[in-house]
Amino acid sequence: MEIIWTPKALKQLSKLKNKAAQKRIVVAVRALADFPDTPGVKALTNHRRAYRLRVGDYRILFDVFDQARIISIEEVKKRDERTY
Q1: Which domain, by its residues, includes 63?
Q2: What is the model's pLDDT at position 76?
Q3: pLDDT digits over 28-59, tens only?
Q4: Which of 2, 9, 13, 63 has the fewest beta carbons closer than 10 A?
């Protein structure tokens, strides 16, 4: 499965000061190639994005396009009361 990072998601990832968290996020996103068998993925309801992946205190919000088997990484956010 092809994984595409949006420019916004790449910018958010690059701005993370915690380099260890950056590496964990990249590894977790690579594991999305096995989607839907990836642990930690949850389908979201009433949200612009279809799915989220938890990586520590961070959430990767993404969409899946089944016809092309493409995962689009849309946002990388630190979890707070406004994340969802």
Answers
A1: 2-78
A2: 82
A3: 999 888 887 888 898 888 877 788 898 888 88
A4: 2
